[in-house]
């Protein structure tokens, strides 16, 4: 057993078909197209923390740890696929394309197409506030499921799952030509970290009305974090968001 699997697997016996569980084994197997060994892993992968209010150390029972593991597995599978598919492209190209495949919006769409939202366990309050269609909840559960598959069945099956969901029917060349929406990526990052929504403000305008240049600053967590200058406000906002993302990446190491 690999180091990662030893790190995450707890000493708990697999759930037998007759054991009580909040999720249905057949539904999980049908949805994911796999044969489940340890149903506990999938129940945890599909448990949102809203269901565990008042529980000590909810991260041990929710899908947060499995999401962390699944994110790493997903990143490796997609990186390997792109590395082999584009043998002549540089690191920057591969990194940008991977980000387009594994960002929260893309993963939420994959989760919706799969029908994963119907199986997620969450509080009634969260469900009544459209939790089953929440981008962050769906993408987190999707990554957690990948982590569960990896621990339960192994890396090969995790690869197959990613190939038939994230990588299936994707025109990689066309996707690589799509412009990055840095504002969406920054908003997504802020939401995932429970930060306030980024705020954009024009700090400077120069030039005549027919040839004006705008400088926009983005404020994240009550601090100016990025600045961008362009011929219109939308492009300046995109540049500011990109600058903020780079700063956050540097701070995260």
Describe the protein's architecture and organization.
This protein has 253 residues and is mainly α. Helix content is 54%, strand content 9%. It folds into 2 domains: 3-177, Ribonuclease iii, N-terminal Endonuclease Domain, Chain A (Orthogonal Bundle), CATH 1.10.1520; 182-252, Double Stranded RNA Binding Domain, CATH 3.30.160. The protein has a 3-stranded antiparallel beta sheet with strand order 1-2-3, with helices on one face. Helix 8 (135-152) packs antiparallel against helix 9 (155-165). Residues 3-7 and 9-19 have low confidence and may be disordered.
The separation of the N and C termini measures 29 Å
CATH superfamily of the largest domain: Ribonuclease III domain
Give the CATH class of the largest domain.
Mainly Alpha
Order of helices and strands: HHHHHHHHHHHEEEH
* Total domain modules: 2
The secondary-structure class comes to mainly alpha
- How large is the count of helical segments? 12
Strand content: 5-15%
Q: Which spans have pLDDT < 50 for at least 5 consecutive residues?
A: 3-7, 9-19
Mean of the pLDDT scores?
87
Strand order of the largest sheet: 1-2-3
CA-atom Rg in angstroms: 21 Å
* Range of helix content: 40-55%
Quantity of strands, as a count: 3
- The CATH architecture of the largest domain: Orthogonal Bundle
According to CATH, the fold-level topology of the largest domain is: Ribonuclease iii, N-terminal Endonuclease Domain, Chain A
Looking at the structure, what is the overall shape? globular
Sketch the major β-sheet.
3 strands, antiparallel
């Amino acid at each position: 057993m690999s180091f990662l699997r030893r790190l995450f697997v707890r000493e708990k016996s697999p759930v037998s078909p007759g054991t009580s569980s909040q999720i249905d084994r057949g539904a999980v197997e049908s949805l994911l197209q796999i044969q489940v060994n340890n149903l506990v892993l999938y129940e945890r992968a599909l448990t949102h923390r809203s269901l565990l209010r008042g529980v000590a150390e909810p991260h041990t029972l929710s899908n947060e740890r499995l999401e962390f593991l699944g994110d790493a597995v997903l990143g490796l599978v997609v990186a390997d696929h792109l590395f082999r598919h584009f043998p002549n492209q540089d690191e920057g190209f591969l990194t940008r394309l991977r980000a387009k495949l594994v960002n929260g919006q893309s993963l939420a769409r994959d989760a919706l197409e799969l029908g994963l939202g119907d199986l997620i366990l969450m509080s009634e309050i969260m469900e009544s506030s459209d939790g089953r269609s929440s981008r962050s909840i769906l993408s987190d559960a999707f990554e957690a499921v990948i982590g569960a598959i990896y621990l339960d069945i192994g890396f090969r099956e995790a690869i197959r799952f990613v190939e038939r969901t994230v990588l299936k029917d994707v025109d990689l060349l066309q996707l690589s030509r799509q412009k990055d929406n840095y504002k969406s990526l920054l908003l997504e990052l802020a939401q995932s970290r429970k930060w306030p929504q980024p705020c954009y403000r024009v700090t400077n305008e120069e030039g005549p009305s027919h040839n004006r240049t705008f400088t926009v600053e983005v404020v994240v967590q009550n601090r100016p974090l990025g600045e961008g200058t362009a011929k219109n406000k939308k492009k300046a906002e995109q540049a500011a968001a990109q600058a903020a993302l780079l700063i956050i990446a540097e701070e995260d190491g």
